[in-house]
C-alpha cells in the first residue's frame, strides 16, 4: 500500500521538456510493480509560489503529501514519507518524461531497493481489457440459460466491459462526470470554505439539497478508520447522485450514468484552483456484487456496531430498501425525527450479545430522508440491471440471429420484479405517523412534476406508507428514460396489469392520471 502511494506521486512527474512540456499541474495516474504485481495510484500536482506541491492517493483514498519536488529539464523527482513509518523511511521517485509518448517511465527507491513505475495523464482502471474478457456468444448464452430466480440470486454473467454494456469503456455522462468537464472548462468553480471545505459548493453545483443530510457512525466506508459516533459520515443525495463527507477525510461521490450504472469518485478536501476530483474504480470491490444486483450500484446496509462504530460482523447485517422490516433498519445510523412507536436499530451501539445501548448524537439525520434513501438506492440498481439485461438480450439476438426463449422469460421476470418495486407492492407499512426534523419533506414534495390537479409522485403520505401515490418518482430519472424501448414498453404494460389487479380504484386512477400528464411517453 505504501508503494502504491508512491506510485501515484510519480504519476504527476510525467512532464515533458521545459520548452514544450505541458504543465505538470493537475491529475496523473501511475502504476508501480514492487513485487511484480501492479499497484495503481493517483497524483495531483499544484503550482505554488517558489515551486510545486503535490499529493499522492493510495487505492484506499489515503492522501500522502509530496516532498522535495524538483524539475530539471525533463526529469522530475520527489519523495514521500509512507504513513506509519519513521521519517527517515522516505521513498524516492525519479521519472524522465517521454516527449513522444503519453506514458513515461521512472524508478522509485524504497529501503535501498529500486523498482520501476509508469505514469500517465490517462486514468487507469482495474477493469479487464476487452481482449481479456471476450466470451463466445453461444458460450455466454449457455451460461445465462442455466440461471433462474430473482435478480439478487441471478448473476449478471457477462463482464461489465462487454460491448453491450461498455462500463468504464465509454465516456461517462453522469452528473459528476459532467461537473468535472465543467470545472476543467472553467464553467464551474468549486469554493473551499471553512471546516466543510468543498462540501457546500459541491452540493450546490450538483443540485443536492443540504436538507437531505443523513449521518451514520458505523465504520462501513473506505474511510472507516475516521468514522465514529463523534465524527459520523454525512450523506446527501438527489435522484442521481449520493455524496458522503467525513470530517478530516475526503468526499466520496456515487453518480448514476443513464446507461452504465454507478460511477464512483473522490474529491480531496484540499484547497486548489481546480480541486482534485477523480473517478475511482477501486470502489467496485464492494459496489459490484450480488448485493448490488451484480451491477456497479448502491449499497445501503444496517449493521450492529459496537460503541466506536466497528460493525460486529458475527451479529450479521441487513440490506435496506422499502421492503425491509423497520426493526432491521438503520443499525449504525443516527435517526432524528418523530418515529412514534416504530422500532429500529438506529441511535444505538450493541453488546456482544446483541443488546442495544443508546448513543446520543447531535447530528441531523432526517427519518424522512432515510426512508426515501432506502427506497431509491435499490430502485437505482434495478434500473441499471434491467437495462443491462435487455441490452444483453438484444446483443445475443443479433449474434445468434434469434431470440432465446429462456432469456425472454428472464426478461419477463425482470419486468415483474421491477414494476412490483416501482409500485411499492411489498412496501413495509408505516406503524404510525412519521415526522422529519428538517425541511427535506417539504422541499422534496415541491420538485414535481405535477399534473393539472396539483398531484405529484413526490408527495408524501408518512402516516400509513411512504408516498401518497404508489409509483416511484424515479420513473422520471434519466436512467429510466435511457432504458431500451422494449424494456420501457413491457414495463408500462406491466404497470397497467399490476394497477388493475392489486390497487384500489382510487389509487389506480390517481397513478394513471398523474403519469399520463407528467410522463410524455406513458401510453394513453
Outline the structure in words:
This protein has 524 residues and is an alpha+beta fold. The chain has a domain at 2-120: Lipocalin, CATH 2.40.128.120. The protein has helices spanning 2-11, 137-145, 175-184, 199-205, 284-287, 367-400, 405-422, 440-445, 478-481, 485-502, 505-518, and strands at residues 26-32, 39-48, 51-57, 63-65, 67-72, 75-80, 91-96, 103-110, 113-120, 214-216, 233-237, 241-246, 251-257, 261-267, 277-279, 301-303, 317-319, 348-350, 356-358. A nine-stranded antiparallel beta sheet has the order 4-3-2-1-9-8-7-6-5. A six-stranded antiparallel beta sheet has the order 10-11-12-13-14-15, with helices on both faces. Strand 2 (39-48) and strand 3 (51-57) form a beta hairpin. It is globular, with a radius of gyration of 25 Å. It starts with a helix and ends in a 6-residue tail after the last helix.
